């Protein structure tokens, strides 16, 4: 089974991806991770990508295309994969279809995580990150034992500059502008499964598992 997971910042996409990979042994395809590893490996693709990012530009679609083709051609894809963070635009979604067709593959389901904006803003603005070890806490749902101090290493906890309401609004607008078109594209194909992701992670994951059970 091949899945695509989509969700705005704060919907728990990262957590759900981790749980899915653990439970179903999917190959995880994240263009963000792939770019980072290509860059640290200094591969020709990585060097090209780096030059765009150094200028503060988006990595162009043809580079992402090459990255995806290379990844989807590897053997472990046959056991099923989870696409995360791609496609982000309608053009990328259409391109992905061509790539998959050529390789004899297809997307079986799109998991769309939905969280109310009010819940999202609570999740994001309450997040605190350790300056030293990167551990993540939340002032309501996962507080540190001592306020402002990391449970794991004693480091100082801080609020990331983009974890503010204003920044969330900007990120949400950007997300909806591009990703809604991607979701619509797959809606037309009847592949989208809307998941109410307002609940705690265990409950959300159970809902996803129910969807997958029906599909298999
Ligand atoms: Zn820490």
Topology diagram in text:
Blueprint lengths: L2 E5 L5 H12 L2 E4 H10 L3 H11 L6 H12 L8 E4 L5 H14 L5 E6 L2 H9 L1 E4 L5 E3 L18 E2 L6 H24 L3 E5 L4 H15 L1
Parallel strand pairs: 1-3, 1-4, 2-3, 4-8
Antiparallel strand pairs: 5-6, 5-7
Helix pairs in contact: 2-3, 4-5
The structure holds zinc ion.
The site of zinc ion has 8 residues, from loops.
Keywords:
216 residues; alpha/beta; Rossmann fold; five-stranded parallel beta sheet; three-stranded antiparallel beta sheet; 8 strands; 50% helix; globular; binds zinc ion
Characterization of the model:
By secondary structure, the protein is an alpha/beta fold. It has a single domain (3-115, 172-215), classed as P-loop containing nucleotide triphosphate hydrolases (Rossmann fold, 3-Layer(aba) Sandwich), CATH 3.40.50. The protein is 50% helix and 15% strand. The protein has eight helices and eight strands; from the N terminus they run E-H-E-H-H-H-E-H-E-H-E-E-E-H-E-H. The chain has helices at residues 13-24, 31-40, 44-54, 61-72, 90-103, 117-125, 165-188, 201-215, and strands spanning 3-7, 27-30, 81-84, 109-114, 127-130, 136-138, 157-158, 192-196. The strands form two sheets. A five-stranded parallel beta sheet has the order 2-3-1-4-8, sandwiched between helices. Strands 6-5-7 form a three-stranded antiparallel beta sheet. Helix 2 packs across helix 3. The longest helix is centred in the C-terminal third of the chain and has 24 residues, at 165-188. It is globular, with a radius of gyration of 18 Å. The protein binds zinc ion. Zinc ion binds next to loops.
């Amino acid at each position: 089974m091949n899945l695509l997971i989509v969700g705005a910042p704060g919907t728990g996409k990262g957590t759900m991806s981790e749980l899915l990979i653990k439970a179903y042994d999917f190959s995880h395809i994240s263009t963000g991770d792939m770019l980072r590893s290509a860059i640290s490996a200094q591969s020709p693709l990585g060097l090209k990508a780096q030059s765009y990012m150094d200028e503060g530009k988006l990595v162009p679609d043809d580079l992402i295309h090459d990255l995806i083709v290379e990844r989807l051609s590897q053997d472990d894809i046959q056991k099923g994969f989870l696409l995360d963070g791609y496609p982000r635009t309608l053009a990328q979604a259409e391109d992905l279809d061509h790539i998959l067709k050529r390789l004899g593959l297809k997307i079986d389901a799109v998991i769309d995580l939905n969280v109310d904006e009010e819940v999202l803003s609570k999740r994001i603005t309450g997040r605190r990150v350790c300056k030293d070890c990167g551990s993540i806490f939340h002032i309501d749902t996962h507080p540190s034992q001592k306020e402002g101090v990391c449970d794991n290493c004693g480091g100082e906890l801080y609020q990331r500059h983009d974890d503010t309401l204003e920044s969330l609004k900007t990120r949400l607008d950007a997300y909806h502008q591009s990703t809604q078109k991607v979701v619509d594209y797959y809606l037309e194909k009847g592949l989208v499964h809307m998941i109410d992701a307002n609940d705690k992670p265990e409950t959300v994951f159970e809902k996803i598992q129910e969807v997958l059970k029906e599909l298999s």
